[in-house]
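Hi R.,

Here's the chain you asked about this morning:
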Amino acid sequence: MSFNKTQKWSGVIVAVAVLGLSVARADIRDTIQNATSGTTVSVSGTYTVSPMKVPAGVTVKGPATFKFNDNTRDGFTMKGANASLQSLTISGANRAVNIYASGVNISACTATGNTDTGFNCDGSSNDTISGCTAYGNADTGGASGGNADGFTAKSDAGSGIKFSNDTAHDNSDDGFDFYEATAPVVVTGCQSYNNGSYAGLTGNGDGFKMGGQYNVAHSYTSCIAHNNTTGSTARGFDTNHNTAKIALTTCHSYSNKNPDVLGNSVLSNCTMQTN
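And here is the predicted structure, written out as tokens:
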């Protein structure tokens, strides 16, 4: 194993540099899980690992690939506040990343080949997912593909959650799904296409499912939904019975299977699909 570590004294940021090709599976997992707040674990190469928890204040920084060996469990579980993942490709897990804590930042990461959602905010708040891609995620077994979305804010997800410049495509269910978010989610510059069917499994297939469990005024700016054609509902934008005044600004929807369902949404400079 080859690494160097500088401890944190007098406010100096901790840095751990790890050479991915020379670190054994247990070593990199233990290095991340035992890191202290303020540590940056720099990783490279490809790791085959068991699911892990990222502690509060710890950054895992790639580029690197993490292939998880248990698709019944979430790959990276973010239970510590202000943790961060950067430039990672994540596969082989249930959810690639499941966020329970506040202030979490996920940037430039890719979730593919997982058996549930790529990136999920689970009862958390004030989290940012930016520049990420979720594709090729599909349920395991059975005839249903109705769980594997690209990006979600579920399980009573709270305030301050932001998705920015993210892309969801070719997932077995929806691209973006905020069914159980209890506070407005802010979505900017995101794109969603070809969702609703993957690996022989079929779900709803909406580009942006804009809530449903609660009436919450989410906002979408410069978002595009197109070619969502294979799912059971397969709309670009769908309020899913959310009666709040959802704000859509410079959003565009086209070439989806069904027309958008916009309810009481407030549109500004949008071109939406009406048939």
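One quick note: Confidence is low (pLDDT under 50) at residues 1-25.

Cheers,
M.
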